[in-house]
Amino acid sequence: MKLRKFLFACILASLFVIAVGCQESDEEAATEGGKDGEDQSENLSGDVVIDGSGTVYPLMAKLAEEYMVNEGQEVSVEVSRSGTSAGFKKFLVENGTDFNNASREIKDEEQALAEDLNLEVEEFKVALDGLTFVINKDNDWATEMTEEELKEIFLASSSIEKWSDLREDWPDEPINTYGPNENHGTYEFFYENILEEADLKEDINLQQEYSTLVNLIADDQYGIAFFGYGYYASNTDSLQAVKVDFGEGPVEPTLETIAEDGPYGNFTRPVFTYLNVAHAKEKPQVLDFAKFVFENLNDYAGETGFAPLPDEEVEESLRILEELKN
């Protein structure tokens, strides 16, 4: 009997040791699994430096804010807005910025400079913008205009000087024209794509800051300006947008009409960000932020004044970024 009790006690002890060992192994596996599955953004630090387009700025600034709060708390994402062309000058240099936002495509001479510097640059479309013509809230005559009338207002070769030159029943008052200056891709898009590189009027008031343009039009009953839809959408209390007749009736710029093949298509343009590929490969925080941008950009496009991209274009951008990890 004593022998039987002894053997039973030994079996119980062995089972206890095995159970404890299995529990420890399970805990270790869970711990290791947690490390492997942990969000890598939480372990990152350092800087991400972005400059360029003032038009793209609201979208990228919003994404940077969301990333720093929710993903990379130890990463500092700095977003500036010197303008597309000025931004490329800071991007296409040794140890330049990580991203350059652009409201136009990179120019041939800029691409050639990148090649001379052995900089690999990747272009990513981030949203769709509608070039918007804005007028003062008290302007009750020019709320609807044709595409050709809008061009005539800004062309140096045009004889249009007063509102009444466009339509007889409009005020016999000078048209005051405004727009972003040459640092901005919006100016270049308007000059190159809309005016087909014809000269603008010499007396046009060109500004660096979009906020200045908003204030100028808000104070000028006879003024008209052009810029990206987002700056109009965030200032509807002080501005109104001109509905544009492209030949089939007036079209108001909205998130629904802004599309490359949509009713506002003639004034729709893609906007971009350009990535320094070497920086993305060398600095994990840069690549991590880039992936965050394309995982979330369509969620914030609308609230920052942009029409979202088709899902397949976003997925293709993510595929390209995923390959940079290899």
Short structural description:
The protein is α/β, with parallel strands linked by helices and 326 residues long.
Structural features, described:
It is a single chain. The chain has 2 domains: 42-128 and 270-323, Periplasmic binding protein-like II (D-Maltodextrin-Binding Protein, domain 2); 129-268, D-Maltodextrin-Binding Protein, domain 2 (3-Layer(aba) Sandwich), CATH 3.40.190.10. Helices cover 43% and strands 20% of the residues. Helix 2 (57-70) crosses helix 11 (284-301) and helix 11 (284-301) runs antiparallel to helix 12 (311-323). Helix 2 links the parallel strand 1 (46-52) and strand 2. The chain is α/β, with parallel strands linked by helices. It has helices at 2-37, 57-70, 84-91, 108-116, 147-154, 163-166, 185-194, 210-218, 229-233, 277-282, 284-301, 311-323; strands at 46-52, 75-79, 99-102, 121-136, 144-146, 176-180, 205-207, 223-228, 239-241, 243-245, 250-251, 268-276. Strands 1, 2, 3, 4, 6, 7, 8, 9 and 12 form a 9-stranded mixed β-sheet that branches. A 3-stranded mixed β-sheet has the order 5-10-11.
